[in-house]
Structures are given as structure tokens and as C-alpha cells.
Amino acid sequence: FSGVFIAIIAIFVFLLYKPKLAKISNLKTQLKKLEQKLVVAKKNAADLKKFQKKMQEAEVQFKTAMRALPEKEEIPSLLTSISRSGQDVGLEFLLFEPKSEVRKEFYAEIPVAMQVKGGYHDLAVFFDKVARLSRIVNIKNIEMGRDKDSTDLNTSCT
């Protein structure tokens, strides 16, 4: 009788218990992998919210910057404002020549070749006034030299 009992237990162990034990072990491994994926997914979800917030902030900054770019119809009045700003501080414009439009991805640049004559401080005030305009205006390629006949500077820029 005990031999039959041991045989039944052995059959139970080999046919039912061991396969179930292997399945439980396999399921535990799968559970650990899924828990790890869940941790990664939660981290990505948190990062996604951060990135979405940064994206919204970038969009607001982009729209603000786009509003600061002058519209095509505003260019003549903007050029007048720039010229007037220089004249108001006592600069003499020797050249004020708009050049061809240069297309960029989101905007177009309209370079203006300028040559002005005046004092260093007047020039600095002019650059400051231009920088404070409500529209984006960049002054580049600045070259300064002393005027031969006076203490003024001859300055060229675009």
C-alpha cells in the first residue's frame, strides 16, 4: 500500500506539481519584467509631462519672437524709426541703403547698409535705441574709424 501511495505522490509531483512550479517561476519572471516596464513607463510619462510643458513654453517664446519680427508692411516705418533714432542723437547718415531680402526659415532679413558719422557716445546711444525698438533689429558688421577732419567716428554696419 505504501508503494502505491509513493507512486501516486511521485506521479502527482512529476505530472502536476513540477509543471505548475515551473509555470509559477516563469510567471514570476514575467511579472518582474512587467514591473520593470511599468517603472520605465511611469518615468517616461513623467518626462513626457515635462517635455510637453517645455514644448508649450517654447511655443509661447516662438510666438512672442514672431510678433517681434516686423511685418513686410512695417519695414518702411521701421527703417524711418531707425534713421530718426540716429538723427535724434546727432548722428549724420552718410549712407542708408536697404539691400535685397534674405529669406530664412521663419522670417526674412532685410539688410541695410549704413554709414554714419558722429561721436562715440552718440553712436552708443543710437545702438541702444535701436536695440530697444519693439521689433527685432540686429546690427552686425560694425566697423569704426576716426574721421580725418574731426574727432567724430565714421562707422559702417548692416
Number of helices: 3
Strand content: 15-25%
Q: Let me know the largest β-sheet.
A: 4 strands, antiparallel
- Report, as a whole number of angstroms, the end-to-end distance: 108 Å
By CATH, the architecture of the largest domain is named 2-Layer Sandwich
Helix content: 55-70%
Provide mean pLDDT, rounded: 87
Structural class by secondary-structure content: alpha+beta
Sum up the overall morphology in one term. Answer: rod-shaped
Number of domains: 2
The CATH topology of the largest domain turns out to be Alpha-Beta Plaits
Strand order of the largest sheet: 1-4-6-5
SSE map:
Blueprint: H1 2-68, H2 75-88, E1 92-98, E2 102-103, E3 108-109, E4 112-118, H3 120-131, E5 143-146, E6 153-157
Antiparallel strand pairs: 1-4, 2-3, 4-6, 5-6
Helix pairs in contact: 2-3
Describe the structure.
The protein has 158 residues and is an alpha+beta fold. The protein folds into 2 domains: 1-68; 72-157, Ribosomal protein S6/Translation elongation factor EF1B (Alpha-Beta Plaits, 2-Layer Sandwich), CATH 3.30.70. Helix content is 59%, strand content 17%. A 4-stranded antiparallel sheet has the order 1-4-6-5, with helices on one face. Helix 2 runs antiparallel to helix 3 (120-131). The relative contact order is 0.09.
